[in-house]
Amino acid sequence: MALDEDPLRQIANSLSNLERLYAEQIARQKEQQEGFAERQKEFDERRKRFEKRSEQANLYRNPWLVPGNLAYLFHMIATAVLALAVIFLVWKSQHWK
């Protein structure tokens, strides 16, 4: 700006520059918010995958929680109860004679 310019023109130029800077700042903020939203979405997806992997790892670390092992455990318990019942019935029938 030259010193011989009209003060109103200087004010108009300054306001024009401020408006341009404001528009640029708003555009940058919008881009940043979109970037933040994208990164948050990626972070949430990674967190969900991590939680799923850690849950699966916990199943392997604690074998009693694996459904197949629980079914096997219940099957063994039922077989043991049945065997004890048969032994008891045989023992009782021999003592009643």
Q: Proportion of β residues?
A: under 5%
Distance between the termini: 124 Å
Helical coverage, percent range: over 70%
Tell me the number of helical segments per DSSP (H or I, 4 or more residues long). 2
Key attributes of the depicted protein:
2 helices; mainly alpha; single chain; 97 residues; 2 domains
Give an overview of the whole structure:
The chain has 2 domains: about 1-60; about 65-95. About 85% of the residues lie in helices and about 0% in strands. The protein contains 2 helices and no strands. It has helices spanning about 5-60, 65-95. About 0% of the residues are buried. The mean pLDDT is about 85.
Please describe the topology of this protein.
Elements: H1 7-61, H2 67-95
Please provide a brief summary of the model.
This protein is an all-alpha fold.
